[in-house]
């Protein structure tokens, strides 16, 4: 089974005042299942994980409705306010919806120590108890606090989206690699091989991306590395087939079944 573990759908009518801005022409329009399905068929992808893009319950409902009507959407990563006083009750209510596999706060827009706030602990514990995973949408500056968060919640399955968006365009690797290595040493932390092209600026060749992917293989092993397209955001820097082929070349052939499907099925508990 081949799984794209990170893709998005959205309606611009629901995004007034939200990203993306009009100048990002390739993605400034509605994106729905009929737009993606041909790409999945052309590239041999059997299913996807649909990931939130708005901090709203309405967006989660929108995604779950799409998942109920389109069988290729195997799982949904939604949103709820993880620091709300009733967050643990919200988590348990969402866990009753079978295709809701995980939650994702938009940490990349928050302060570096956002994950250190004790207010998030009841929700994180509830997620652990109901078997729900945590997508960490973070930047390199958040990695030290993510490490502390992951250590506080060893039973919580965590995946780092887009490898924490390393500064590939500027050639930044040292500090990011050190922090990611520490996280890779924790068995409950996984990493997504996604979103790297959009961080690369003009450095989008395989020789530019390769050193970052090799670090991820070393840090997480091929048993905790999960491929995703980040489509349609990917359209800003490349195309679906090109990104998939680059990753196939960078990942050892014997690990393809795991990285391009098996690991996603395990992490997100996909049917």
Average pLDDT rating: 97
The largest pleated sheet is described as: 8 strands, parallel
Q: How many E-type strands?
A: 8
Strands in their spatial order, largest beta sheet? 1-2-3-4-5-6-7-8
What overall form do the CA principal axes indicate? globular
Structure, briefly:
With about 270 residues, the chain is an alpha/beta fold.
Q: What characteristics describe this protein?
A:
alpha/beta, 271 residues, globular
Describe this structure as you would to a colleague.
- By secondary structure, the chain is an alpha/beta fold.
- 38% of the residues lie in helices and 13% in strands.
- The protein has an 8-stranded parallel beta sheet with strand order 1-2-3-4-5-6-7-8.
- Strand 7, helix 7 and strand 8 form a beta-alpha-beta unit.
- It starts with a strand and ends with a helix.
Topology:
Layout (H helix, E strand, L loop, with lengths): L2 E5 L25 H10 L4 E5 L5 H13 L3 E6 L8 H9 L4 E4 L17 H10 L2 E4 L6 H10 L5 E3 L13 H11 L4 E5 L12 H15 L4 E3 L12 H11 L5 H13 L3
Parallel strand pairs: 1-2, 2-3, 3-4, 4-5, 5-6, 6-7, 7-8
């Amino acid at each position: 089974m081949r799984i794209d573990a990170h893709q998005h759908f959205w309606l611009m009518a629901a995004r007034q005042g939200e990203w993306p801005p009009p100048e990002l022409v390739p993605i400034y329009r509605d994106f729905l299942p009929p737009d993606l399905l041909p790409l999945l068929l052309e590239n041999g992808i059997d299913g996807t994980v649909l990931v939130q893009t708005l901090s709203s319950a309405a967006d989660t409902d929108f995604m779950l409705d799409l998942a109920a009507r389109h069988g290729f959407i195997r799982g949904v990563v939604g949103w709820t306010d993880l620091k709300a006083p009733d967050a643990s009750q919200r988590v348990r209510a969402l866990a009753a919806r079978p295709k809701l596999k995980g939650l994702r706060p938009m940490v990349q827009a928050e302060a570096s120590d956002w994950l250190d706030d004790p207010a998030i602990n009841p929700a994180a514990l509830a997620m652990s108890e109901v078997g729900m995973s945590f997508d960490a949408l973070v930047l390199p500056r958040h990695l030290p606090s993510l490490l502390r968060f992951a250590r506080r919640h060893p039973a919580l399955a965590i995946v780092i989206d887009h490898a924490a968006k390393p500064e590939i365009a500027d050639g930044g690797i040292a500090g990011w690699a050190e922090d990611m290595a520490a996280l890779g040493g924790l068995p409950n932390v996984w990493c997504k091989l996604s979103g790297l092209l959009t961080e690369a600026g003009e450095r989008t060749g395989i020789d530019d991306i390769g050193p970052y992917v090799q670090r991820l293989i070393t840090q997480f092993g091929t048993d905790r590395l999960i491929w995703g397209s980040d489509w349609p955001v990917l359209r800003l820097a490349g195309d679906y087939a090109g990104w998939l082929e680059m990753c196939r070349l960078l990942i050892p052939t014997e690990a393809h079944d795991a990285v391009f499907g098996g690991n996603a099925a395990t992490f997100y508990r996909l049917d």
